[in-house]
Specification:
The chain is mainly α. The protein is 61% helix and 0% strand. Helix 1 runs antiparallel to helix 2. The radius of gyration is 15 Å and the shape is globular.
Length: 79
Amino acid sequence: MEVKEGTAGFDHRLNALAHLVHSSLINRTRADQTVLDEFFEAGYGLPHLLDVAMAIADNVISNIVSNTLHLPAEKPTGW
């Protein structure tokens, strides 16, 4: 539940990642500079930042296509 709220206090690196994703989404893809600094200080680099950006972009594109075409949400199997 912590991660969904933009934190991961149980792990320093994951906490920086969660802050970055949360800040990016809340600020409409413009993460705060302090959050970016925290991300890089946690040992992540530019390739990791690009991976995060691609993951967010993939989700946004999927949502646009799904909502435009009114596709039903898939139900996970085995739940």
